[in-house]
Amino acid sequence: MQRIPIECEYIRFGGQFGGHHFSNTCVLDSLLAGIHIAAAEHLHIADLFKADLTISAVMTLLDYRKYDEAKALWLINLDLHNCSGKLFMQNDHIDIRGYVKDHLPNFMDLTCAKYHYDEDRNSPNVEDHIYNNMMSKFEHLGAVRALGTTIQDPKLILVDADGRLEGFPPRRIIDHYSRIFNLQFLLLGVVTHASNHMVLCSRLDGNWLLYDDTSTPLFRTITLPEIKAEDYVVYLAAYVNVPTENSKQD
């Protein structure tokens, strides 16, 4: 399994590719670091990402520390999903300022179910088997995107909280089938009157780490109580399905 180089160089802010210079990359950097660590921590997540050729290629580039190339491929794929091509039409300067939800289309081909917080929460179909038995456990947190090759076996749940949460997301969620979903990483906003910034809090090797693409060192060990005590805003929560022998099947 690929080792994350937390003691040395890793994904840093900015970057360049083919004459294009990237700026305001904190959301992209934090998201890439989050899914890369998740794949390193969990073999079934690494296998899931291999089912999408582009995300698999991004993971390979990150494994080989080709960080700027990984960012470029991610952005090119995002342009293709959005049918725009606008990012690489910004001459030599590409401003990636935006929100977590702007990057979620890249998971489209791995998405087996979605629950839109604003559109679906007031009118869910009570007969909807998927909603009642799995998605409803996450709906109070935000817009839900289940990733997996089949809906019967979701591997990773991405919850776009978008700063709505009051409090902190639970560390574990158990659905109708007794499947256990453990909190793997959070994308956290550092919001001040002067600026907005995104950092990552991720589980790795039994510890929680805080990653900031502008800091030196990039990673520092932290506890969840310390995170809760600081003035962070939760924008994305990622939950990994932890396989257990006692989990009920559909």
Concise account of the structure shown:
The protein has 250 residues and is an alpha+beta fold. 26% of the residues lie in helices and 27% in strands.
Describe this structure in words.
- The protein has helices spanning 26-41, 43-50, 53-63, 67-82, 117-120, 129-133, 224-229; strands spanning 16-17, 20-23, 93-95, 111-115, 143-147, 156-160, 172-174, 180-191, 196-204, 207-211, 219-222, 233-242.
- By secondary structure, it is of the alpha+beta class.
- Strands 4, 5, 6, 7, 8, 9, 10, 11 and 12 form a 9-stranded antiparallel beta sheet that branches.
- A hairpin with an 8-residue loop joins strand 5 (143-147) and strand 6.
Low-confidence parts: 246-250
The DSSP helix count reads: 7
**Helix coverage percent:** 25-40%
Rg calc: 18 Å
Percent of sequence in beta strands: 25-35%
**What's the structural domain tally?**
1
- What is the straight-line distance between the termini? 30 Å
- What is the N-to-C order of secondary-structure elements (H for helix, E for strand)? EEHHHHEEHHEEEEEEEHE
What structural class is derived from the secondary structure elements?
alpha+beta
Q: Quick check: average pLDDT?
A: 86
What's the overall geometry? Answer: globular
Structure summary, number of beta strands: 12
